[in-house]
Amino acid sequence: MEMNKEYKSFLYSYHFANGLRITAGIALPAIILSYVSLLQAGIFASLGALCISITDNPGPIHHRRNGMLISMLINSLVTIITGFSLDNPVWLGIFILIACFVFSMAGVYGARANAIGVSALIILIINLNHHEEATQVLYNALWILAGSAWYMLLSLAIHVFRPYRLTQQALGDLIITTADYLRTRAEFYQKEVNYTETYGRMMALQSVLLQKQNLVRELLFKGRKISRESTIESKTLLLIYLDVTELFERLSASFQDYETLHHYFPEEIIFEKFRSTILSLANEMEEIGLAVLSGTTTEEKDQLPAAVTETASFLEAYSKQYRTTENEQGFHSFELILQSIKDIQARLHTLHLYTKYDKSSSRQFRLRKEFDQAVPRQHYNLDILRNSLTLRSNIFRHALRVSIATGIGYCISFFFPFGHSYWILLTIIVILKPAYSLSRKRNVDRLAGTIAGVFLGILILYFVKNKTALFIIMLFLMTGTYSLLRTKYMWSVLLMTPYILVVFHLLNLKDFQSVMMDRVIDTAIGSIIAFAANLLLFPYWSHNFIKKYLLQFLEKSQLYFEQSARFLWQQDLAETTFQRSRKEAFTALANLSDAFTQMLTEPKRKRLHVNQYQEMVVLAHMLSSHIATLAYFSRSIPEGFTIPDFQEKITPINAQFKTSIHCLSNAAQASNLHTIPAINTTPPKEKVQHLSNQSASQSTAGLLKPISEQFDLIKNITTDMVKICRQIA
To answer: Looking at the predicted structure, is the pLDDT value of residue 257 above 80?
Structure first.
């Protein structure tokens, strides 16, 4: 069953559609032109299509179009310069150094600009293997331009015929990833929990989730096409996105101190009950994600509501039998978790209805004009580049690293026969990433994938002799290569290697067998150079920037806390203001988690304060959860019901935030800092009870106690954070 879901998820995903599109874009020019005796032209046209596809990242259609147009012009120009420089190795070496630095610096302008730079470097490196006359160089550049234009028209034509398809795929993928996140959270309810490993996977998934949320937000709001339209499809997609975003906030609000919770209840029956229900929620969410991904409808099953009701009854009975003063807080945590489960189940019910794209579901929906204001805008002014030309910039260090490493690879290639240089340099370009952890993983994946791919290629060529069969196998290998390129790099390389070998065989190159060994040797050389460059050339270890991310998290979390608490006395607070503060806080949490995850993959001698940062990341997740819970309860207070007494709880929390921020910002003075005296929190509890008695609304009265408890929990966490920040400083 799980394999069937994974298969469907992949089959309907953007990545598989992208693989099919790239395969068609690359294969057709070579096939068609070879029939009219223009095989070399077809190869260059296919090369142009391949390199332009690198820039065709998901996003608003006008961003994709502009990115491909810019890349077309740059790639053609790079082809001409490279072709004219091949006869002068010195000038060619200088051009490689400059181009690698300039195109790597493009990363300061975001992912799409970085893709344009990578595309230009790949076209440069592949052209190193083609020594031609001046006229032929210009023809090659024109064919690369033609192949690029062909791929761009193909990609844009698919969008014209299916304008909502990419958004559906991105939205469905977001829902499925949210289900995976919830499934990972369910592991905290197991009897034996590896908290470090589970926290690590949860942090990684949360970072991926926020990236996918940003992508969907861009698709919906940046292009303005969908958000302006009043069709059933556009409205429904917007509603699904808004509900999934709220669902993720509710998930975040249900986070607890699971290790302490297990101490409260040594018996595992209550944990297993909740774990089973949470897994049912995750499975239901995945079904909805698959339906959105594939554009089909889905029906709500009776099992999930029944499971939620059964869990609620179980908790009530279990509480009556085992509740004591010692485990009171534990039962309260489970009650909060149950509230979240009920809320998520209700949202899933609504999402089931949305998959039908029913007009009645979206009739009353009106998107507020301010919604797209939270979408970040990418600026392209020269000041951004100028400010990044310093060793304090990780992109600048990466550009220097790439430039020097490729220069070394270019010099080493002179010791090998003609044709080796481009594959060594290509390996370096593909492997080297700004982060050490990403480069190391790419290094291992590329080397392992190449070796395994060579053996797979040998098996294919040994057992399959028919050229038509080999051509069909090549198309399957191409599709797999480009479908997995952005998600499972090792598998992509494993399929890419036999695909290249089959291409060489079909082109009747007599030395194709030596190509296999050459590729392994060149990949090994490129991998060694890339690995050494990561360790020795301007390394930028996580401890150099993780403190900055921790500071950003504390600053954004303080704002998020203030906005959440403000709902208690300002019910007319702008929703977009709150959403922006929440998004920035979760983004800062994801950046902090990413930085810590990178730190764990680095050499041990570079993991400074790793224990303190690990504690801080766990506390950060708990803090975000309690602030989200506070926001949930605060927004439930009816209009006009003010609670000024909670200001006495807000003040010391803000003071602790400021102490932590000041401590990290002024490390030299950290030892002289004193903890801000805690304000007595007993009077507000009495006042809360007084207000509860005065209130005519029982539901409102019931909210005051959990609100007070959330303030206490947040204060305890921020107090612990002050201690850890002092240790780090």
So the answer is: no
Range of weakest confidence among 344-353, 605-614, 660-669? 660-669
Rounded distance between C-alpha atoms, residue 409 and residue 401, angstroms: 12
Give dist(CA 561, CA 661) in Å, integer: 15
**Using the 8-state DSSP alphabet, how is residue 222 labeled?**
I
- How many whole angstroms separate alpha carbon 221 and alpha carbon 228? 9
pLDDT in tens, 584-599: 888 888 888 888 888 8
Instruction: For 11-43, give the DSSP string.
Output: HTSHHHHHHHHHHHHHHHHHHHHHTTT-HHHHH
DSSP 678: P
CA–CA distance, 388 with 382 (Å, rounded to integer): 10
Alpha carbon distance 274, 314 (integer Å):
10
Pick the range with the lowest mean pLDDT from 290-294, 365-369, 609-613.
365-369
* Amino acid (1-letter code) at residue 650: I
Listed residue (342, 333, 338) closest to 622, CA to CA = 333
Q: Taken in order 446, 452, 455, 459, is the CA torsion positive or negative?
A: negative
Distance CA 116, CA 138 (A): 21
**pLDDT score recorded for residue 366:** 56
The continuous run of DSSP H or E covering 565 comes out as helix 546-566
Start-to-end C-alpha separation, the chain: 51
Q: How far is CA 491 from the centre of its chain?
A: 19
Residue 491 vs residues 180, 250, 428, 500: alpha-carbon distances, Å:
21, 36, 19, 14
d(CA 220, CA 217): 5
Q: List Cα–Cα distances, 672 to 4, 552, 659, 669, in angstroms.
A: 60, 23, 12, 6
Q: Which two tokens stand for residue 640?
A: 């006009």
Cβ neighbours of residue 648 under 8 Å, at least 6 residues apart?
A: 679, 681, 683, 684
Contact 30, 38 (CB under 8 A): no
Q: Residue 149: what pLDDT?
A: 94
The CA-atom distances, in angstroms, between 309 and each of 87, 334, 413, 699 are 77, 14, 68, 21
C-alpha torsion 616→621→626→632, nearest 10: 150
pLDDT value at 81 more than 90: yes
Answer for the pair 346, 339: CB distance below 8 angstroms, yes or no.
no
Q: What is d(CA 143, CA 225) in angstroms, rounded to the nearest whole number?
A: 34
Tracing tokens 């489960």 back to the chain, one arrives at 341
Confidence of residue 2 (pLDDT cuts 50, 70, 90): low
With tokens 């990178």, the residue in question is: 598
Highest mean pLDDT among 240-244, 569-573, 578-582: 240-244
DSSP 340-354: HHHHHHHHHHHHHHH
Rounded-to-integer distance, Cα 362 and Cα 241, Å? 13
Can you state the angle between helices 328-354 and 269-294, rounded to 10 degrees?
20
Q: Which two tokens stand for residue 94?
A: 């200088």
Residue 28 is predicted with a pLDDT of 92
Residue 686 burial (C-beta neighbours within 10 Å; 0-12, 13-18, 19+): exposed
Interatomic CA distance for residues 589 and 554, integer angstroms: 9
The pLDDT, as a whole number, for residue 679 is: 36
Q: Is 418 helix (H, G, I), strand (E, B) or coil?
A: coil
Q: Which residues contact 393 (CB under 8 A, 6 or more apart)?
A: 108, 387
The string of pLDDT tens digits covering residues 207-252 is 788 888 888 888 887 755 555 556 778 788 888 888 888 888 778 7
